[in-house]
Design brief:
Elements (H helix, E strand, L loop, with lengths): L4 H20 L5 H8 L3 H7 L3 H26 L2 H21 L6 H29 L8 H8 L9 H18 L2
Helix pairs in contact: 1-2, 1-4, 1-5, 4-5, 4-6, 5-6, 5-8, 6-7
Length: 179
């Protein structure tokens, strides 16, 4: 049964506020999120019966937005620039995941990783193939290998020095993909 429009708006507002709140403080309470979203705790719990369900939905929503963004980027950017921008956003999503803290337990983490891995690899493949087609990206790159290389970018320390290091690492990765 479809949700009423006001219920859907509340859900979207809760997710948006939760993303912000959990990025700022991985321990943000559900009551503080409800208050920031301008809804009562009961409304939040109707949509998300527990903290884990809210945290997981925030992460899922962000990953799916990211995966859907790849073809949009390719409509306006050359593949190498699209890939760089896409990876920058992926790194920021990983930072969000880091901010979600203990809410992603080991078992839940595996389930979410399995669910989101396919869309992420698919988006990388779309951009790589576009770069192959226009001659800017080396042929036959494996999206899994490229994602593994990207792991170094989101492992940098937080803060300005880490951001600069992440940019340097991203430059090295992008340069290694050039034809």
């Amino acid at each position: 049964m479809p949700q009423r429009s006001d219920a859907q708006q509340n859900r979207e507002r809760i997710l948006s506020v939760a993303r912000e709140a959990l990025t700022e403080d991985g321990d943000a309470s559900l009551n503080s999120i409800a208050k920031r979203a301008g809804v009562g705790p009961g409304t939040l719990y109707r949509h998300f019966p527990n903290r884990e369900s809210l945290v997981l939905e925030v992460f899922r929503a962000e990953v799916h937005k990211l995966a859907d963004w790849a073809p949009e980027l390719l409509r306006t950017e050359p593949p190498l620039i699209a890939l760089r921008r896409w990876f920058q956003r992926l790194a920021s999503y990983i930072a969000i995941k880091r901010g979600l803290g203990d809410a992603l337990t080991a078992a839940t983490h595996d389930a979410v990783t399995n669910e989101t891995y396919g869309p992420v690899i698919g988006a990388i493949a779309v951009i790589l193939r576009a770069g192959e087609a226009d001659g800017t990206i080396r042929p036959d790159l494996d999206p899994d290998d490229v994602l593994l290389m990207m792991g170094c970018v989101w492992r940098v320390s937080p803060g300005p020095a880490g951001e600069k290091q992440a940019e340097r690492l991203l430059d090295l990765i992008i340069d290694s993909l050039r034809r």
